[in-house]
Amino acid sequence: MNLNLLNNFKKKLAGNVFGVFSKTTDSSIIEILGLAGFDFIILDNEHGYTNYETLKNHIRAAELSNIIPIVRVPNGEAEHVSKALDIGAYGIQVPNINSKIQVENVIKVAKFHPEGERGVCKFVRAAEFSGLEKKRYFNQANKALILIQVEGEEGLNNIDEILEVKGIDVLFIGPYDLSQALGVPGDIMNEKVLKAIDLIVKKAKIKSVKVGVFCDSMEMATEWKNKGINYVSYSVDYGILLDCSIKSVKRWENK
User: Structurally, how many domains does the chain consist of?
Assistant: First the structure.
């Protein structure tokens, strides 16, 4: 882990950072997005198609191009969390968080003693395949980011107790799942959804917890930034590629 890269990101996160979701299986795309200047990339292992070998190469490509690699794990179970961190993820993003107990469990399996109970293996990429001195490895590993996703009505109802847990770096709002939970599926601009997000942002700020959100338009990204959201995830690499391709074709046809 490049601690300078991570520390610079954390400083920038105090204001806002701009990133993208990724579903690609081609690590060159990760490198390109880093070279483009995105701050972070969420490597999607929940809805994506990548295996851990591919994720490991994605993380290498991210480090090479100075973009922070976050792995969205399928759930908060130790198997998925530890594997993502073992291969060198700079943070894990855990979906479908609904309770304080779930958050506490995520931190327990993601952190080494004394902050947690993560299983120890030094023969992994994150420990330089046993080359990193053990104490240094444990200290460094415990600096990895913990991001939790609150997406449903239950999580919204339990937001106060969730925010009581120490160790959350970013509370990420899934607007599409939230819209479904609030009875307006897909309508992320619905007043119900916007009010719920505003409430979460307000409560998180009181607890000094950074907030993240997904958006699929630059207009919405700017609006979230202006509302004080720190971690803005814009679209998905596949969608960005499709959008740019369509615009290129239209330009050609209008010549």
Answer: 1
Q: Is 3 helix (H, G, I), strand (E, B) or coil?
A: helix
| CATH code, domain with 115 | 3.20.20.60
DSSP track, 187-243: -TTSHHHHHHHHHHHHHHHHTT-EEEEEESSHHHHHHHHHTT-SEEEEEEHHHHHHH
Range of the structural domain that residue 51 is part of: 3-253
> Which residues make Cβ contacts (< 8 Å) with residue 105, sequence separation at least 6?
76
Q: Find the largest Cα–Cα distance for the chain.
A: 64
Q: Which residues are known to be catalytic?
A: 47
pTM beyond 0.90: the answer is: yes
Q: Which two tokens stand for residue 220?
A: 């919405």
Tens of pLDDT, residue by residue, the chain (255 residues): 999 999 999 999 999 999 999 999 999 999 999 999 999 999 999 988 899 999 999 999 999 999 999 999 999 999 999 999 999 999 999 999 999 999 999 999 999 999 999 999 999 999 999 999 999 999 999 999 999 999 888 888 999 999 999 999 999 998 888 888 888 988 888 888 888 888 899 999 999 999 999 998 899 899 889 888 999 999 999 999 999 999 999 999 986
